[in-house]
Amino acid sequence: MRQLRILSGVVVETMQGLKQGGWSNWLVVSILVIALTIFGGVLQLTMTLKSVVAAWGSQLVISAYLKDGDDPRSVARTVSQLPDVKLVEIVPRDVAWQEMQASFKVASLANPLPNTLHIQLTRPEAVEKTALCLRAMDGIEHVRYPLAVARNLNRFRQFLEATGVAVTAALTAATLMVIGNTIQLVIQSRMREIEIQSLMGVSPWYIKGPLVLQGAAYGLVSALVATSLIWAGRVYVEACVAGQLVGFLPLAGQQFGYGMLPTFLVLLVLGVSVGAGGSAWTSGRYVKI
Amino acid sequence: MIRLQNVYKDYGGRPALVNVNLHIGVGEFAFLVGPSGAGKSTVMRLLYREEKPTSGQVFIGGIDITRLDRAQVPLLRRRLGIVFQDYKLLPKQTVFDNVAYILRALGVERMEVSRRVRSALTVVNLEDKEDAYPDELSGGEQQRVGIARAIVNGPPVLLADEPTGNLDPVASLEIVQLLERISQRGTTVFISTHDQFIVNSLRKRVVSLKAGQVAGDVDSGVYEMETIG
Ligand SMILES: Nc1ncnc2c1ncn2[C@@H]1O[C@H](COP(=O)(O)OP(=O)(O)O)[C@@H](O)[C@H]1O
Ligand SMILES: [Mg+2]
C-alpha cells in the first residue's frame, strides 16, 4: 500500500512534468514516431519477405506463359516429356480471366491474359535447369518460377534490413538528443524545486522517477501511433499487392504478415527504452543529489 | 545530539572553519552567532550534509554523518527539520501541499497526512491558511510554513540557518519564540543568526564563531556585535 501511494505520487509528478513540457512533448513524440514507424515498417517488410522467400524458395512449380495462337495442349505434351516434370496443368486464358473477374471487379476489357502452364517438378534442384529449357522452347513466351522471385526478394530484403537499421540508428540518436533536451529543460525549470525536495530528504528516485516516467510515456504514445500507422499502411499495401499478384504466382493469395501484436510489442520496448533511457541518462547528468 | 569534532573546512584552499569543536545535547536550544562570513552557514551545511568537512567528524544522534554514502543522505535529512533564510517553499503548491510534500513522498496514508499537516499548521498558528499559496503570505507567515514543514515528520533535531534574516523585528521574535516552543517539546533546536535582538531577548545558550573558529560558548548568553573602528 505504501509503495502504491508513493508510486501514485510519482505518477502525479510525471503528469505535471508533461504539462510543463508543452510543445516539446509533441516534438519528442513526432520524432520518436518517425523513428519507430520506419523501424516497424522495415521489420514488417523484412519479416514478410522472409516468410515469402521461405515459402516460395521451396516451391516446385514453374509457370510458363504461352505465345498467342499456339495450341496449349501440344506445348504441354512437349513439356511433359522433359526430365523431372511430374505434372503439367493447363490454365486456358479464358478460365484464368473468368477467375480473375470473379475475384476482382475488372472492367470488361478484352482478355489480356495468355494461356498458362503450371508445371510441377519432382525435385527442387531441377527447377533452374528446367526453367532454362522451357525458356528456350518455341511456344513459350515467358517463364516465371518462385525460386527466382524469392532470390530477388531476398536480395531486396537484405538491402532493406541494412538501410533500415542504419536509418533507425540515426533516428534513435536524434530522438535521444531531443528527449535529453526536453528533460533538461524540465530539470532546469525545476532546479529549485529539486533542490528543496532533496533538502527535505526526498529519495533521489522519487525526484528522478517522474522524469524517467515522462520519457517512458513518450515511448508508449509513440509506439501506439507508430503501430497504427504501420497497420494502416499494411492494410493499404495488402489491398494493392493482392490485386497485382493474382495470376502471377500460385501462392499469391497466401498470408505472409508479421503479426501486429508482436510488432507493437517490439516498438513498445524500443520506444520505452529510448524514452526512459534518454531521460534517465539526462537526469543522471543534471540532477546532482 | 549534535557534535562537531576537530572540524576543518576549506573552500578551495581558503579556510572557512578551523578546528571547530561543539556539542549540543538532546533537547537543547542553542544559537550560533557571528558576523557575516564567520562560517555559520558552513556549520549548518555540514550538519545536513550539503557539505563534507575537509577533516574532522560530524555526529548527529551518535552517527558520524561524514561517513554516510549518498543513498543514506535522504535518510539523515528526514530526521532533521531544516529551516532556511529564504524559506525554500515550493511556489506552485499551497501551504498544505508544501507541508504535506515529504509525507506524501514517503507514502504516508492520506488521512494521516492530513492529520499531521493540520497539527503542524496548528503549532505555527496557520490553520486558516492551508489553501493559500506562498506568494499570498507575508514573510513571517512563509517562514512559519517553513517551520511547519520542518517539524511535520517529527524530527529530533531542528536546524535553522538565519531564519529571521529576511524578517522585521516583530516577525523575527515570533519566529524564535515559536522555535523555542518547539524545543520545549523535546526537539533539539540549533539556530544560526547574526540578529542581536532575537538572541538577547531569549537568553539561551550562545555559541559564537569568529573567522571560522569558536570564540565563545555561554549559557543564557547575549550576543554583542563588535563595534568596528
Ligand atoms: N560554496 C562556497 N565556496 C567558496 N567559499 C565559500 C562557500 N561558502 C562559503 N564560503 C566562504 O566561507 C566563509 C564562511 O561562509 P559562511 O559559512 O556562509 O558564513 P556565514 O553564514 O557565517 O555568513 C566565507 O568566507 C565565505 O566566503
Ligand atoms: Mg550564512
Describe the fold and architecture.
The complex is a heterodimer of chains A (289) and B (229). Chain A is an alpha+beta fold. Chain A has a four-stranded antiparallel beta sheet. About 3% of the residues of chain A have low confidence. Chain B is α/β, with parallel strands linked by helices. Chain B has a domain of 111 residues: 3-Layer(aba) Sandwich (Rossmann fold). Chain B is built from seven helices and ten strands. A six-stranded mixed beta sheet of chain B has the order 6-7-8-3-9-10, with helices on both faces. A four-stranded antiparallel beta sheet of chain B has the order 2-1-4-5, covered by helices on one side. The radius of gyration of chain B is 17 Å and the shape is globular. The model of chain B has no long low-confidence stretch (mean pLDDT 94). Chains A and B meet through helix 1 and helix 7 of A and helix 2 and helix 3 of B. Adenosine-5'-diphosphate binds next to helix 1 of chain B.
